[in-house]
Amino acid sequence: MPEIGEVARIVNYLQKHLVGKTLAVVKAQHDDIIFGKVGCSAEAFEKALTGKKVMGARQQGKYFWMEMSSPPHPLMHFGMTGWMNIRDEETAYYKPDNPKTTNEWPPKFWKFALQTAEEPKAEAAFVDKRRLARIRLIDCVASEIRKVSPLVQNGPDPIVDKEIFTEDWLGAKLASKKVPIKALLLDQVNISGIGNWVGDEVLYNARIHPEQYSNTLSLEQVKQLHKSIQYVCGFAVDNLADSSKFPEDWLFKHRWGKGKKDSATKLPNGDKFVFLTVGGRTSCVVPSVQKKTGPVAKDVENEAEENVKSESEEEEKPAKRKRVPKSKDRKRTIDEESEPVENGDFNGVAHNEDEAEQASKPASKKRKSNGKAKIEDAKAMKINDRRRSTRMSGKGL
Questions:
Q1: Composition bias, kind Basic residues: at what positions (predicted)?
Q2: 322 lies in some domain
Q3: 6, 52, 62, 158: which one is catalytic?
C-alpha cells in the first residue's frame, strides 16, 4: 500500500511533468466506487480540470492533490493498489524481477488520463486494479485545502508538519490513548502517512514492541520513537520510496517472504523476525530487540485465561471419598453418597467422562427409589440371617 514515501514519489513526478502546464485533454471513466463513494463523477472531474493550469502538487501523508488555477482541486488517495503512471517515465517504486513492457496507453485499469497543451506534451494516468482508491474535488481556495474535510480530520504529516510534530506533541498524543502503539501509528487521525511497513520499521528502529500500550511508554521511549518516525519517514521521502536505496538492515529488505518456501526469517545480523497480528494488521517483529516494557492487551487476556484455567483445574480435582463405617449405618451412608447429582453436573465441571455421561442420564435410571432399595436390603438381611442360623445349627450338630 502506498505510504508517505510512495506518495512523495508521485508528487515529485507531478511537479516535474505537470506543474506549470495547462491540461488540454482530460478524460475520465466513471467509477461508482472510486469517484462515486466520495460524491464525485467522471463528468465533474473532466469539467473541473479541462483547460486549467496546474499550479502545484502537494501531499499530507497518504493524500495528495493538484492545485489548479481556479477551484475545484483534485484530491486523491491511492488506497491499496492505486498509482499514477507518466507516459515514457518509470514511476514504479519497486522493480519487479521480470518487468512486463507495454506501450499501451491509457494503461490498463485507468480511471482518468491527462495531457498537457505545451510541447513536449506530458501525459499522466491514474490507475487502480482493485478500486480501493478515492478521487474527489475540493471546492475552496488552494491554500485552504488542508482546512476542510477530509484532510482536516487527519493528523500532522511528520515531514511536512515538523513544527507541529514535535516530541512534546507526540508524548501528549501517546499519553492520551490506551491502545497498542502500532494501532495508534496506523490511525491517520493521529499521524498522517504511516502505513504498515513504515510502522513496523519505525517500531523496530525504536526498539518498541507493537503490542505495548501507547500510554505506558517511558519518556526515553517517546523521545526515541519521535526520532525513529522522523528518520524512517524522512529517509523514505527523501529517496522517493526507492527501495534499492534503503539500508540493508531495514526490515523492509527482508520481510516480504511470509508464507513462501525458503523465505528469510533472519536479518543480516542474525536476529530472527516473526509475524503477529496487531490491530487487525500483520506486524513484523524482532523479539530479541523489541521487548515489552509494560502491560499489553494480550498479556491481560492471557492472565485472565490463566486464572480461569486454575479455577477449572481446582474444580476438576476428585472429591475425597467419605469413609464408609462398618456399623449398621453402612446402608444409610451408601444411600446418601449415591444420591443423583443436582442439574446433572459436578459443581459445573464433570470430573471425568464416565461421570459426565452418568450425570446426563435421567435420575430414574441411575438408581432405584429409596423405598424399593430398603425393601431389597431388608430381604437380603433376612436371607443372610437364615444362612447364619443354618450354619450355626450345622455346627451344633
A1: 319-331
A2: no
A3: 62
